[in-house]
């Protein structure tokens, strides 16, 4: 068992460049997590000093990795605010409600042909269930498919795919887990399953950036056809970070039929519309007697976007997801296959 006090002692042996004190004593170590054979934390520093802390991060990783019994180490370096150069690059038109919109995206991850976001304005509408089963449907079509769990504060993909254990590192890149024909990465694979991610927006954004750009999604010989990004609910920092870091080929919005969910779906569509990401369609999930039916179809017509179909509330889908084998069967699987075919055509796959 790795002792937390021993981890803190190792980190305090590394001096903070700004104060000369140990990293823990200097207060730059945030969210320290210590498990049986692993440790992870975030180094949070002002943006103008971030570059100088890269060697500190590397030293901390090396020191922790050298501890007896330590098998997994994750150290994330993040800054408190965007650097001035990034702020200066924002256009006047990119200011909405007092917050800057994302600047022009840089580039998609290496060897990834298409990036598709699955979003919802409201939590609890089954977005992750849709993302996983839609990814599986892409794979059944013969597409090399990856799924990125971008819900940093509430990662569910490891449970739904039956995954555990930190990813392996090779040549400075993380190797995604493989399950059910999919390549998968999640912050839930970098921490203990019951840890609370007490991270502010910049820390969550940095975690997403590292998973997006430092995961070996594909190779020149075998590129990834499509990366499905399971976004957290809402329209916040993680969504803007994704838009900033990679060109999105489209977004699918998931909603239940009732107005309280559709109102938030409307806001999600508005966000992506304002940053020129096409909404490829709206999916109605949990259709049935409890939540009603047809609300999302009507909303799609009002928004002038495609309606990609409805999915009934089915206990077998929930049971399979809880068991780590979330692949829908029968009629529901057919519905996902139809949706995947339509999206593949839209994306030119």
Keywords:
3-stranded mixed β-sheet; 349 residues; 8-stranded mixed β-sheet; alpha/beta
Note down, in words, how this protein is organized.
The chain has an eight-stranded mixed β-sheet, with helices on both faces. A three-stranded mixed β-sheet has the order 1-2-3, sandwiched between helices. By secondary structure, the chain is an alpha/beta fold. The protein has twelve helices and 15 strands. It starts with a helix and ends with a helix. Helix content is 35%, strand content 23%. The chain is elongated. The longest helix is centred in the C-terminal third of the chain and has 18 residues, at 330-347. It has helices spanning 4-12, 23-26, 54-65, 84-88, 127-140, 157-161, 201-213, 237-245, 259-274, 295-303, 315-322, 330-347; strands at 29-34, 38-45, 72-79, 95-96, 99-100, 112-119, 145-149, 169-170, 173-174, 177-179, 182-186, 224-230, 250-255, 279-287, 307-312.
């Amino acid at each position: 068992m790795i002792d937390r006090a021993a981890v803190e002692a190792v980190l305090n042996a590394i001096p903070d460049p700004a104060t000369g004190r140990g990293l823990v004593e200097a207060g730059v170590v945030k969210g320290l997590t210590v498990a049986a054979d692993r440790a992870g934390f975030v180094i949070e520093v002002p943006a103008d000093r971030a570059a100088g802390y890269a060697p500190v991060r590397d030293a901390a990783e090396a020191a922790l990795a050298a501890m007896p019994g330590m098998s997994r180490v994750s150290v994330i370096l993040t800054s408190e605010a965007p650097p001035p150069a990034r702020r200066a690059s924002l256009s006047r038109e990119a200011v909405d409600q007092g917050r800057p919109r994302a600047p022009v995206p840089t580039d998609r991850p290496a060897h990834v042909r298409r990036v598709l976001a699955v979003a919802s304005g409201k939590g609890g509408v089954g977005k992750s269930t849709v993302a996983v089963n839609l990814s599986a449907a892409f794979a059944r079509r013969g597409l090399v498919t990856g799924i990125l769990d971008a819900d940093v504060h509430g990662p569910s993909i490891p449970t739904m795919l039956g995954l555990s254990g930190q990813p392996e590192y090779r040549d400075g890149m993380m190797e995604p887990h493989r399950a059910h024909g999919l390549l998968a990465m999640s912050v839930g694979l970098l921490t203990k399953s019951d840890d609370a991610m007490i991270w502010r927006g910049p820390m969550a954004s940095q975690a997403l950036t590292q998973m997006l750009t430092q995961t070996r999604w594909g190779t020149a010989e075998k590129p990834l056809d499509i990366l499905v990004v399971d976004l957290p609910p809402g329209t916040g920092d993680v969504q803007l970070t994704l838009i900033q870091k990679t060109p999105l080929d489209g977004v699918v919005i998931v909603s239940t039929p009732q107005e309280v969910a559709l109102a938030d779906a409307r806001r999600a569509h508005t966000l992506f519309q304002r940053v020129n990401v096409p909404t490829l369609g709206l999916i109605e999930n949990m259709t049935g007697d409890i939540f009603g039916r047809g609300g999302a179809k009507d909303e799609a017509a009002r928004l002038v976007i495609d309606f990609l179909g409805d999915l009934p509330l089915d206990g077998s889908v929930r049971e399979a997801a809880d068991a780590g084998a979330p692949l829908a069967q029968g009629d529901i699987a057919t519905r996902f296959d139809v949706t995947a075919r339509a999206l593949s055509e839209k994306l030119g796959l």
